[in-house]
């Protein structure tokens, strides 16, 4: 049996994925988590074969979850299932060690097949996403620029961002200015929107 943990913050989607996968004779859903932090704790305790995760979740994104699993050397392979068909997300997911990346409108057969492929050591990427990633531009942001831009997009002031990331206010403004310049944006709100649309946040 392939032991699967599902991380999904929308209860309805979590329930639907669990119910559909339980119909597969060789797949066992061992747990469900409502956010990335809970998923990580469950992975450390249960060590499932496959972690099926959304990208955007409270406390820890699916990409951050994949990075955390990799850094802890847990033998869990990650498959992302998301609504975000953005090449930037796919590239960052691959860099984090994600082995599969599918869209939520894929048929359940495709999801089950992807789980089997990844469990067997392969990769499973939605073809339309692989093509978009090949043709898309590369992410110009550093990790720190991405961090402060994400917080700015949430409406935080430079003072609040500085307090949260333990930097001086001037350093935060410099990171934001650099991100705005790299993206050719007019201000931090526009830079946030552009980076988010490209899947770089």
Automatic annotation (TrEMBL):
CDD domains given in the database record: LuxR_C_like, REC_DesR-like
Domain of life: Bacteria
Modified residues (4-aspartylphosphate): 54
Entry keyword Phosphoprotein: yes
GO molecular function: DNA binding
Any GO BP annotation: phosphorelay signal transduction system
PROSITE patterns listed in its UniProt record: HTH_LUXR_2 (PS50043), RESPONSE_REGULATORY (PS50110)
Residues in Response regulatory domain copies: 3-119
Every HTH luxR-type domain range: 134-199
Entry keyword set: DNA-binding, Phosphoprotein
One Pfam assignment: GerE
Protein name per UniProt: Transcriptional regulator
Organism of this sequence: Massilia aurea
């Amino acid at each position: 049996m392939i032991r699967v943990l599902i991380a999904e913050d929308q209860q309805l989607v979590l329930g639907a994925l669990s119910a559909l996968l339980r119909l597969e004779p060789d797949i066992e859903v061992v747990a469900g988590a409502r956010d990335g932090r809970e998923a990580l704790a469950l992975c450390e305790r249960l060590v499932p074969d496959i972690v099926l995760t959304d990208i955007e979740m409270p406390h820890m994104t699916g990409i951050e979850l994949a990075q955390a699993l990799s850094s802890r050397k847990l033998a869990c392979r990650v498959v992302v299932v998301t609504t975000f068909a953005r090449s930037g997300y796919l590239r960052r997911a691959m860099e984090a060690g994600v082995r599969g990346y599918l869209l939520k409108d894929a048929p359940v057969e495709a999801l089950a097949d992807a789980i089997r492929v990844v469990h067997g050591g392969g990769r499973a990427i939605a073809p339309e996403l692989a093509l978009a990633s090949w043709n898309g531009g590369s992410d110009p942001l550093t990790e720190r620029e991405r961090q402060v831009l994400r917080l700015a997009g949430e409406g935080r002031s430079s003072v609040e961002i500085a307090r949260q990331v333990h930097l001086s206010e001037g350093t935060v403004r410099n990171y934001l200015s650099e991100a705005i310049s790299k993206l050719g944006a007019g201000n931090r709100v526009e830079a946030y929107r552009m980076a988010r649309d490209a899947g770089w946040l």
